[in-house]
Amino acid sequence: MLRRSFLTLFAAAGLSACSSAPAPSPAASAPASDFSFNRGGDRSLPTKVWLPAGNGPHPLIYFSHGLTSQPDDYAELLAAWAAAGFLVAGPKYPHTWYGAPEYDADDVVNQPADAQYVITELLKSLGGRVDPQRIAAAGHSAGAITTVGLFSGSRDDRLKAGLMIAGRQMPQPAPFSGPAAPVLFVQGGEDETVTSAEAWGAYNEVPWPKGFLDIPKAGHLPHRDEPALVAATTTDFWRWTLNGDQAARQRLPQDGLTSTF
């Protein structure tokens, strides 16, 4: 089988840095709910949902965590999106979260199908709280690779935008396909786990409106190294792509952002 092991792609030290993020401040907090989904067999997908104020319908941002991580590790960023009016949901993937009973980094190749399943179940479970016409996908590290899969070989046509934090393509890249969707890459210049060259390689294959935010002094966790910049930039990206907010588009940073937006 021509599949390189993700264990060789992600250094253990870099992945262990995906541990708990600081708790959001009370002003940025959003109430959370837990859902239990299962795609069959051993593919249990417990999912946390950060709920914005109001009954909606709200845009949905589906988030994929990195290896040896979990959604709560990104709580500060995800709660900030929820506080801005977005419903945010993230599962624990069955074989790549930090407490997985049978950890298998190569299982990332199965996660795009998990993501599509969870999105479908969320639409059923949350009903009118979610706007099915405004769905986006985001992820960090292996979760960003999962997100790339949702826009390429495992294309989910429901997605209107995508965010990859420290992301690259899978070892056997498939072309980006389906309806055009703006995508944003956020990359630390000092990341040794997913290098800038790998991130740029994926970015250069995107045929749609796209942006690349380079944060020179950040490592594999740019959302932890520069939390205010990443939160502000990504929130405005969502406001533009999911809400049609042109003022938010104009607020995207001029320094460090290469884009065709």
Compact overview of the structure:
With 261 residues, the chain is of the alpha/beta class. The chain is 31% helix and 23% strand.
Commentary on this structure:
The structure is a single chain. The chain has 261 residues and is α/β, with parallel strands linked by helices. It has one domain (6-259): Rossmann fold (3-Layer(aba) Sandwich), CATH 3.40.50.1820. The chain is 31% helix and 23% strand. The chain has helices at residues 6-9, 12-16, 75-83, 111-126, 142-150, 196-205, 222-225, 227-243, 246-251, and strands spanning 32-38, 44-50, 58-64, 87-91, 130-140, 159-165, 183-188, 210-215, 257-259. It has a nine-stranded mixed sheet, sandwiched between helices. Helix 6 links the parallel strand 7 (183-188) and strand 8. Helix 4 packs across helix 5. The chain is globular, with a radius of gyration of 17 Å. The protein starts with 5 loop residues before the first helix and ends with a strand. The relative contact order is 0.14.
Q: What is the class in the CATH system?
A: Alpha Beta
Q: Which stretches are low in confidence, meaning pLDDT under 50 for 5 or more residues running? A: 1-29
Q: Number of folding domains?
A: 1
Number of strands: 9
What is the topology, as strand order, of the major beta sheet?
A: 1-2-4-3-5-6-7-8-9
Keywords:
23% strand, globular, 9 strands, disordered N terminus, 261 residues, Rossmann fold, 9 helices, 9-stranded mixed β-sheet, alpha/beta
List the helices and strands and how they pair.
Layout: H1 6-9, H2 12-16, E1 32-38, E2 44-50, E3 58-64, H3 75-83, E4 87-91, H4 111-126, E5 130-140, H5 142-150, E6 159-165, E7 183-188, H6 196-205, E8 210-215, H7 222-225, H8 227-243, H9 246-251, E9 257-259
Parallel strand pairs: 3-4, 3-5, 5-6, 6-7, 7-8
Antiparallel strand pairs: 1-2, 2-4, 8-9
Helix pairs in contact: 4-5
